[in-house]
Amino acid sequence: LFSMKDLTQGSVKKHFFSYLAPSILATLVTSVYTLADTIMIGQYEGDDGLLALNIFLPVYSLYIAFGTLCGVGGGVRYSLSIGRGDAEKAKRVFTNSLVLFFVVTALFTVALNVWFKPVMRLLGADEFSYPLVRNYGKYVAWCGFFVAGAIFLQAFIRNDKNPKLAMAAVVAGGLLNIVLDYILIFSADMGMAGGALATVISYGVTTLVCCTHFFRKDNGLKLKKGIKFSEISEVSASGVSSFVIEIALGFMIMIFNNQLLKYVGNYGVVTYGVITNTLIVAISLFNGIGQACQPIAAVNCGARNFDNVKKLRYLAYAAIGILSVILSLPVQIAPNAFVKMFTSAPSAEVLALAP
């Protein structure tokens, strides 16, 4: 367990790059879950499929937000405890984070299924789009636990000094998702429903691969008897900023969808769906940089090595700056290339709006 203290010694740059590639790849492949659905459903259903998917997209943001609240919030407290040399506190943090995770995801899953139609109406579904939204969302609504679970476990596994397993779990799920999307959407002719099934099955596989960490000899994620509400509160406080960032994305999409439907119509939502899915890839890469920093920063904060934290921050800024330039260029040069990637027969209105 205390091998985590290695992160307070040696080169900060070396630690940063050892976490950077696995973290970026893991978050990038996570975005592929939604991206693969969007591209293949867009090719199968056209603009109508993109409209339905973008209406449902905030639900994914909520599940990811819950996984982030418990996983990142708990991971921060876990690594701080390790940095301070308190192994028993680290076990209590993991236990109470797990309890919080099960409670919030269970409550949300039940609420979403009981009030599915009113929630979809709130998100912008109308009589035209609701059947497609329902066809896709009914599977995710019941199995969204795996979406949140994959995010939760990845965060803790990284903080337990195993970023490569987190990466392997997401890559395995992402590749399976692409294969299943093709089989279920096209070969099985299931359309929207096939895309949803492919996604929840793939998230389930990611969650199961992450669970193999608990069988490792050096696994530090142990359960400790007893629930402490003070520690659940600490986890929530540490994870709330990341939770707000994730949930804000879903809220922003909902507000934009409703305003676009009001002032522009369905073409506006389809166009915004292309932009949103392109943006999700960029956000995932920036999240990867943040997640690479988080375990290193938390352990060094716990050990009060604040010079290392400052060096880490500057490395992250440099990575963000370089990545921003690389991502901006293709969007500026050929915006409609992204539209044609997402839908088989984009309308003239969408091609005019997208740039």
Percent strand equals under 5%
Mean pLDDT: 89
Order of helices and strands: HHHHHHHHHHHH
Task: Give the total of beta strands.
Answer: 0
Shape: globular
Poorly predicted regions: none
Radius of gyration: 21 Å
Distance between the termini: 51 Å
Number of helices: 12
The biggest sheet, with number of strands, parallel, antiparallel or mixed sense and barrel status, is: none
Structural class from helices and strands?
mainly alpha
Q: How helix-rich are the residues, as a percent range?
A: over 70%
Write the layout of secondary structure elements.
Blueprint: H1 12-45, H2 47-83, H3 87-114, H4 116-123, H5 130-159, H6 163-187, H7 192-211, H8 229-263, H9 266-302, H10 306-333, H11 335-342, H12 348-353
Helix pairs in contact: 1-2, 1-6, 1-7, 1-9, 2-3, 2-5, 2-8, 2-9, 3-5, 3-8, 4-5, 5-6, 5-7, 6-7, 8-9, 9-10
Mind explaining what this structure looks like?
This protein is mainly α and 355 residues long. The protein has twelve helices and no strands. It has helices spanning 12-45, 47-83, 87-114, 116-123, 130-159, 163-187, 192-211, 229-263, 266-302, 306-333, 335-342, 348-353. Helix 1 packs antiparallel against helix 9 (266-302), helix 2 (47-83) packs antiparallel against helix 8 (229-263) and helix 8 (229-263) runs antiparallel to helix 9. The chain starts with 11 loop residues before the first helix and ends with a helix. 51% of the residues are buried.
